[in-house]
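Quick review question:
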């Protein structure tokens, strides 16, 4: 079983691909994402692609070249489930910070793989450069 630190390192690295299907394997369908615009119901990979489209465009325009994750807190008391608070940092090719953010996740173990069933944006901090 993959630990949550490895899962989120793979998850943040997948962002570097900037491809619409790069994050599909990390999510359970259906799932929920709560961000600055409210709760988004994601029923399929197509919904996930639509949800991330403008985000990936923003990262492309900012010249994304670096992505890092750090699991701040995790709880795995429930069989087959876990909760994690993760901090992410995204930077450009000049090693400048684009933004960093914190998310809380609820995860489900499905076929021995972690899948996000709920993601809650806690805080996003943009660099003065963007």
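Suggested answer, residue by residue:
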């Amino acid at each position: 079983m993959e630990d949550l630190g490895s899962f989120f390192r793979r998850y943040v690295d997948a962002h570097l691909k900037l491809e619409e299907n790069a994050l599909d394997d990390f999510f359970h369908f259906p799932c929920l994402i709560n961000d600055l615009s409210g709760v988004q119901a994601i029923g399929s990979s197509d919904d996930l692609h639509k949800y991330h489209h403008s985000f990936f465009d923003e990262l492309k325009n900012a010249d994304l070249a670096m992505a890092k994750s750090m699991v701040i807190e995790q709880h795995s008391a429930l069989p087959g489930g876990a909760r994690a608070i993760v901090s992410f940092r995204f930077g450009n090719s000049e090693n400048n910070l684009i933004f960093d953010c914190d998310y809380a996740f609820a995860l489900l173990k499905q076929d021995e793989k972690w899948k996000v069933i709920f993601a809650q944006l806690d805080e996003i901090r943009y660099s003065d450069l963007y």
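Why it works: The CA atoms of residues 64 and 92 lie 5 Å apart. The first helix runs from residue 4 to 15.
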